[in-house]
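## retry 2 of 3
previous attempt timed out at serialization; input unchanged, resubmitting
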Amino acid sequence: MKKDLISIRDLTSAEIEDIFDLTDKLKKDKLRFSKVLSGKTLALIFQKPSNRTRVSFQVGMYQLGGNSLYLSPSEINLGVRETIKDVARTLSRYVDAIVLRTYEHKNITELAKYSDKPVINGLSDFEHPCQALADLYTIREKCKKLKGLTLAYVGDGNNVCNSLLYACAKSGLNMNVAAPKGYEPKKIVLKEAKAIAQSKDAAINLFTNPVEAVKDADVIYTDVWASMGQEEEARGREKVFKEFQVNKKLVGLASPKVLIMHCLPAHRGQEITDDVIDSKNSVVFDQAENRLHVQKAILIRLLK
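## retry succeeded, writing output
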């Protein structure tokens, strides 16, 4: 039976841990897995531009002995030139898995419904599961544990924040979210994440003041204030979020060894300052690298 990765909700805590354990092995011995997906082909359907997601999946498939096929917006024009249902049924005859990077989450759920092959969420307006898994793996790698730590997310309650809420809850990691009023994560996500976290003896907390959220935090995480598709709101959001900048003063309120994280691309001087993203506490580019390794583990688990 095929398995998709549409949301962090699709994974059990044990499956997340298994992905991380396999990632450890992949990082230690790349040659051991160099032919594990030989003969397999991954289709990459991207409605949104990408740097890390596209490169990491293409390189990952190559390093695992497989092939990848990039399909640009103009080539597919998903749901316009051809229905999502027909694209799913056609590609299922050609490839072994599909990554979709799209604007609307419903596109991914529909593609997965009609595809006979595994579908991976490469980003939607609701979640970014591969990013969140790479983030938590990076924290685990640096701190040697997850349970009992506290991650403070400062900024927009967006797709990355949603995935982090589910991932932290399932891993026993406390998470504080600091967002302006009206920009909080979706209520259903908070409700579900809090219930999962409670079962893991962890806590999910929502703040409107970033100072309260970062106090004694082990990790401070931020993202752009206006995501792709929100360009028209950028100027207005800059005014709303100006007190939510991750700068040296805010970081000084957290643990001295606090990890600084950002999923990139970063708008330096807006949500994060140069002296923070380039500081010794920053693990931003370790995060970016770990997208490659974690996604290789995901591909193996879905395709083997």
